[in-house]
User: Which sequence fits this backbone?
């Protein structure tokens, strides 16, 4: 089954792009959305990802990192002018729905740039105190006000908001511009949450296949979801939409 992987980070070590290409070929991934982490990993990932999508425009779409409360909102204009498809946001200085962050979202809506927000618990890092990191700032509920205030903005929450997966699913029911991806280290628990919410508020038309893993693991994660999604109740058409169709719909919205 062909797939678009909506949540991949720039590989670290070895020959990164060769590893990425080989992983995609083995797993039959037709496109990856590379999510930048800015300088959190010690390099300028916006630049690395820009170079990558310029070299492989059919395979790679770039989501540029925006550090809410640190970067000027004009960074959205800059990333748009450089050809980034969307934005990646994680580790804000305040909750995502703080009024002072609205200028970033206003620009993204204007440019039809989807935003992928980290939602749920975030991994610990030595810089957490310096950047005032709190997972509470990134709960799924923090996307509700943004979705209501910017109805034309495509919003993607990562990891189905784990461990607040039920919260994420209910938000999908109320906000038609809100999607969630199903990647993360807690894949089994995300699958259980979907099983409990299917046919109620876990909308299969707004779930996105994603892995958030290394290229060497692309095939293993894809095999898991190819087996699991039908077993927990999704139809063949719904599975195809999760793997490919829903992401394709977002891309069509961008080109309008």
Assistant:
């Amino acid at each position: 089954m062909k797939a678009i992987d909506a949540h991949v980070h720039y590989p670290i070590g070895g020959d990164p792009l060769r590893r990425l290409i080989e992983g995609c070929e083995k797993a039959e991934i037709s496109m990856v959305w590379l999510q930048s982490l800015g300088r959190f990993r010690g390099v300028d990932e916006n630049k690395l990802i820009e170079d990558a999508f310029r070299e492989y425009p059919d395979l790679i779409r770039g989501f540029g990192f925006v550090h809410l409360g640190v970067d000027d909102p004009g960074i959205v204009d800059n990333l748009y002018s450089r050809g980034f498809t969307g934005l990646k946001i994680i580790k804000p200085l305040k909750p995502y729905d703080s009024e002072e962050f609205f200028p970033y979202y206003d620009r993204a809506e204007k440019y039809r740039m989807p935003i992928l927000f980290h939602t749920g618990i975030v991994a610990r890092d030595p810089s957490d105190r310096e950047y005032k990191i709190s997972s509470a700032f990134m709960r799924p509920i923090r996307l509700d006000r943004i979705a209501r205030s910017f109805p034309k903005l495509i919003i993607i929450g990562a990891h189905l908001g784990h461990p607040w997966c039920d919260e994420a699913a209910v938000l999908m029911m109320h906000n038609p511009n809100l999607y969630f991806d199903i990647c993360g280290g807690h894949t089994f628990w995300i699958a259980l949450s979907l099983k409990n919410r299917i046919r109620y508020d876990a909308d299969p038309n707004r779930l996105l296949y994603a892995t958030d893993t290394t290229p060497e693991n692309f095939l293993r994660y894809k095999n898991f979801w190819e087996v699991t999604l039908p077993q927990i109740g999704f139809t063949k058409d719904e599975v195809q939409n999760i793997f490919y169709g829903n992401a394709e719909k977002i891309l069509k919205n961008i080109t309008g």
Remarks:
- Residues 236-255 form the longest helix (20 residues).
- The CA atoms of residues 204 and 213 lie 22 Å apart.
- The first strand starts at residue 3 and ends at 9.
- The beta strands are 3-9, 29-35, 60-65, 86-89, 115-117, 155-157, 178-181, 207-208.
